[in-house]
Design a protein that fits this description.
Layout: E1 2-6, H1 10-22, E2 26-30, H2 33-42, E3 47-51, H3 59-68, E4 75-79, H4 84-92, E5 97-100, H5 105-119, E6 126-129, E7 132-135, E8 140-143, E9 146-148, H6 152-163, H7 171-178, H8 187-201, E10 206-209, E11 213-216
Parallel strand pairs: 1-2, 1-3, 3-4, 4-5
Antiparallel strand pairs: 6-7, 7-8, 8-9, 10-11
The protein binds calcium ion (CA).
Calcium ion binds near residues 8, 9 and 53.
């Protein structure tokens, strides 16, 4: 899962990036509204965190442009304390949720998890596929109740597939959603990660759909 943070307070932006990365997300940061708008318009994010008070282009205009250009990713708006009118304008402009500054990082993480999960059509923080289960709160995967040790990269890939269970996900889509912008993306590393995940999860969970990509499914549902 990949997240865009648009925040002009550089310390806060850095803290958000670090916390989100520790929680297993790939994160891109923009420090003004113009750059933020550009990234959100050209890169596929699973969610965006958008400050409203931004230089060059304010947050509400960024959001308004994204929505009128058909960008539908969930957006969590950051508002200054006591600015109730900001919350109303933010929601009217297409925000999915808001957090008031100052905030606790745990609250941001919980709201981002909920937004991503709802956007993918899941009500629960735990996603299941046969005996495989991931808990998006702890970032852990279990198989038949036993913890499966995954690297951050492996978890990110598995989490993306689990959020899009039953659908075919292309290699390009995976690359776009598990790496941040500056990462040196080599498309064959996806195959390496899928290979490692298969070794850890056992055969049958991650099916290769020839020429199209991968699909996660309970073992035994393998027929096309
Ligand atoms: Ca600001």
């Amino acid at each position: 899962m990949r997240i865009l943070v648009v925040e002009d307070d550089k310390d806060l932006a850095k803290q958000l990036k670090r916390a989100l990365e520790e929680a297993g997300y790939a994160v891109d940061v923009a420090h003004d509204g113009e750059e933020g708008h550009f990234l959100g318009d050209t890169e596929p994010y699973d969610a965006a965190i958008l400050d409203l008070g931004l230089p060059v282009l304010d947050g509400l205009s960024v959001l308004d442009r994204w929505r009128s250009q058909g960008r539908a990713m969930p957006v969590l708006v950051l508002t200054a304390r006591d600015r109730w009118s900001d919350k109303v304008s933010g929601i009217d402009a297409g925000a999915d949720d808001y957090v008031t500054k100052p905030f606790r990082m745990e609250e941001i993480l919980a709201r981002v998890r909920a937004l991503i999960r709802r956007a993918a059509g899941h009500a629960s923080a735990e996603l299941e596929c046969g005996a495989l289960r991931i808990d998006t709160r702890s970032g852990r995967a279990t198989l038949d109740g036993t913890l499966v040790k995954l690297t951050a990269q492996e978890y990110r890939l598995l989490s993306y597939l689990m959020h899009h269970q039953g659908k075919v996900v292309s290699r390009t889509e995976l690359i776009e959603h598990i790496y941040h912008q500056d990462f040196d993306r080599e498309s064959n590393t996806i195959e390496v990660f899928v290979g490692r995940l298969r070794k850890k999860l056992g055969e049958g969970y991650i099916a290769t759909v020839r020429g199209l990509g991968y699909r996660i499914q309970p073992p035994g549902d393998a027929e096309d």
